[in-house]
Amino acid sequence: MSTTAQIFTELKGVVKQREANKAQAAQSASKSTEISSLTGPPSVVVFTDLGKDLDDLLALLVLKEYHRLGIIELVAIITNLHPEEKRAWFAEGAAKSLGLNVWIGQGTKGSKEVHETEYYEFNPQYATFISPDGWRHSESGPEKLRIYAGFSLFETILRGAQAGRQKITLLLLSSLTDIAQFMQQPGNEDLFKNTVSEVVMQGGYEVGADGTINPAIDLTYGAMNNKFDPEAAIYFHASLQRRAIESTVYTKAAAFAAPVSSEFIKRLANTGHSVGRYLNSVKIEQDVVFYVNSCSPTPRYMSRENFLKFKTTLPKSQWENAPIGRNIVPYLGGALAYDALAALHVGGADVRGILGYIDQASILRQTNCYKSPIHRVIGFQPLGPWDKRPRMSHLHESVVSNVLSALFMGALQTTLDDDQRNVQSLETRVHNAVKMRGPDIKKEMQRIQENAVRYENMRLNSKGKRSS
């Protein structure tokens, strides 16, 4: 298994090899050779719902470190999902704290239903890097954050790529509403086809025997990013198939195989970086909220069984009488890095090859799934209780965990943020303290615990039992 130092040496070696290949190609190229084949690292645009889950922020750490090393060029971060404006502020603040100078776009609500925001997502006690009101306040005066309209920003980037004969790698980590709406506009499918080299998604689809790609939408066996807007998911996947646009999807089966331990997240917090501290503070709150929701009659994220199986250390024999609400905390396992795995993929085939975290042999062994030459599924997820095919991660689990840990830690250790420099003015701190008054955390915790008891009573009553 490679050490952290070896991982970074290998990544730097990829950059040197690319530069050597580029120089050699430039020397031998004829005047008719397209410049696009000789220019730089992959250019990446990401759609994300930062703040909703920890894995979006973990994905940003991967992208930041790839960008710093020259593995990719991170061009833009576009946020969606209600409240999309606050998610854009979150993206701007997180990017700034990580030393990223990239375009930030604000997308759509991401769903026809209003997404319920949890109390911890933008809470100032945790997210110290977020602007409270869309302005950055300093001794020199207030400055409005540079947030662009997501649709226009994305179109501008693609038209610029087309003019420069370049390609974009598109990373989709959230609702597919925005990208489906973009594709539906006249001429945009052609623009997309001509400028996007690959679409990488965190989600789920199966490739049928006839080559069709069918998005998984069912809660237990499907993907939340498809479920936010099923019509958009169906339309966009059909567009990928119709226009033969290359795609790779990372499913929950892959994510379950490579959790990030709670101990490691504490180490990220111990760097003193505001992003590391946010990850550590929010992990427990997020897991408790997700657990309580999984016990409800209509869970939004995952079933109770899946939560206990994949996010706790409780043996199956104790699931029936599992602790209620916050009492689950001592049994919580690591964080699932769904989005970080998809972010890892955008480094390119040479990076994936040298790091060796994908188990190609397991993909070849899985003969009971149709394999498309341009649509790839990493992590096989059974499609329903009737589907007896085994879950497969398609990953070398210890290798991918090692790679992710190196990139997460590297992203924080190579960037000092304002909190660590202690350069925030007194005026800024006072302004933020006033403007960023979030929900009363103690009251929210009490509300969640009351819901947990109510859901448990409902579950037991449905089985003809009574809780004590």
Word description of this protein:
By secondary structure, the protein is α/β, with parallel strands linked by helices. It has helices spanning 4-28, 54-69, 84-97, 150-163, 177-184, 188-195, 224-227, 230-242, 252-256, 262-269, 274-294, 304-311, 338-345, 349-355, 360-365, 397-413, 418-421, 426-435, 441-462; strands at residues 43-48, 73-79, 103-106, 135-136, 143-144, 148-149, 168-172, 196-202, 205-207, 213-215, 247-250, 259-260, 335-336, 375-378. α1 (4-28) runs antiparallel to α14 and α4 crosses α6 (188-195). It is globular, with a radius of gyration of 22 Å.
Please sum up the structure shown.
The chain is built from 19 helices and 14 strands. The protein is of the alpha/beta class and 468 residues long.
